[in-house]
Fold this sequence. Notes:
Blueprint: H1 2-43, H2 48-68
Amino acid sequence: MRPLRIVSEKFLWHVVDEGAIDNVLVNGAGEKTASVGNLLRQIQSGNIPSYATWVLLGAVLWAIVHFRDPRIIGGAWPFPSV
Length: 82
């Protein structure tokens, strides 16, 4: 039983639980969430026309990609290609 206890305490507890689960998964997820939140905070302006412009540009880009892809059923660009 002693070797099992040593493996449990030295490897499973310290390496797996403290190292991998606590530091990487739990704290890592929290740090990543905070850094993404900080990035998003910087690009928010509170200017509604700016948000509307980004939505419009995204919709136009989506339409271009969607209608240019011949694999999509009915996905033919309505204008002749150059």
